[in-house]
Amino acid sequence: MIVAAILGVLTWTLLEYLIHRWMGHDRRFRKSPFGVEHVRHHIEGNYFAPTWKKLIAAALFAGMALGPALALGGMAGLGYVAGLVAAYGAYEILHRREHTHAGIGPYGRWARRHHFHHHFVDGRRNHGVTTPIWDVVFGTYERPSIIRVPAKLCMSWLRDPATGQIRSEHAMTYQLR
Ligand SMILES: [Zn+2]
Ligand SMILES: [Zn+2]
Predict the structure, then answer these.
(1) Are 85 and 62 a contacting pair, CB within 8 Å?
(2) Ligand 1 centroid vs 69 CA: distance in angstroms?
(3) Would you tell me which of 42, 77, 85, 151 could form a disulfide with 73, CB atoms 3.0–4.6 Å apart?
């Protein structure tokens, strides 16, 4: 069951990449529900699709996956779906916090730089949010250098409210444009 749960987590990281890259950034899927919400997330910066929409999508997906998973794998199938859903939840929390809070520790800082490189430097790169694995596998990984953030989209954690400039602790890695 634990092995199956780990496989579920890995499956989520792949889905996260594929959904973001294709549904979010391929012209053909621009009009899909995910595409529409994702374009708005990029344009507004602090916009996130409503939680109720995410809960419905997650419940529909888990509901459809659970039957076949139980039939094929029994408790292992249950572990697989549980791992997948838990990893999805962790992704949602991480992505939201990337926009709202400064990162804690090397991973928190890495995740923000990886994601804001995607937002502000090159939207064709760094589609993964929780891990760079699939960007490396599919050749879309780019190591961020200085990230130039448009002033009107700048995250509040990045900006010193007293000066309106990038906080000094981030000035080596982010700039305003
Ligand atoms: Zn995107
Ligand atoms: Zn984002």
Answers:
(1) yes
(2) 30
(3) 77
How many angstroms is it from 28 CA to the middle of ligand 1? 15
Alpha-carbon span 102 to 168, nearest angstrom: 13
Given a contact cutoff of 8 angstroms between Cβ atoms, the answer to whether 101 and 29 are in contact is no
Q: Which residues are close to ligand 1, an ion, with C-beta < 5 A? A: 24
Query: In terms of residues, how long is the chain?
Result: 177
Model pTM?
Answer: 0.93
In the reported structure, the alpha carbon of residue 3 is separated from the centroid of ligand 1 by a whole-number distance in angstroms of: 31
Backbone angles phi, psi at 147, to 5 degrees: -100, 120
**Segment holding 31, helix H or strand E:** none
- How many whole angstroms from 33 Cα to the centroid of ligand 1? 14
Q: What are phi and psi of 149, to 5 degrees?
A: -100, 125
